[in-house]
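Fig. S4 source data, part A: sequence.
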Amino acid sequence: MADKTDTNEETIVIKKYANRRLYNTKKSSYVTLDHLAEMVREGQDFVVTDAKSGDDITRSVLTQIIFEEESKGHNMLPTKFLRQLIGLYGDSVQGFVPGYLEASMEAFAKNQDDLRDQMQGAITGNPAMAGFEALARQNMDWFDSAMRMFTPSVDVSSEKAESATVSANQEASDVELGDLKTQLAQMQDQLSKLVDKS
């Protein structure tokens, strides 16, 4: 039997009814496990109580959320870890496991925040990234100059042709530079998403 719940004013009470529906008493609306998962990600504190008995069933509901996430293909719990965890049930060290896992996750969360800050600093504060556009333009200018050295100019008409070629090359350079900017933005976005997932 689960413990009765003691909550503070900031803790949201979710009631679970016999029909398995979850009711958010703060918002006076029904919610799903996905809503609860989002509340966890947002750092909202809540407890889940059995609507009939008042027992705290938060742990089993959180476990159910993990099961749902794993079944969606968001696999974070390695099979070996799950086997080891199951093996600790009934073991003499079972009482120490929750505290150890909680401390480990807190350390991981702190390291994750530090890693995010470092990655963000590497992207925004890196002079190589900041000067990427200038470097790309410089490379294109150098390429244009090199091409002009191999293109002899004969008369005024060829100078006009060369001017048109340079203009076309400049436009091509601008398009390529735009493409490079787009690719860089996509890479930064993907890197941010990877960092957020870790």
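Fig. S4 source data, part B ends here. Strands lie at 12-16, 22-24, 29-31, 46-50.
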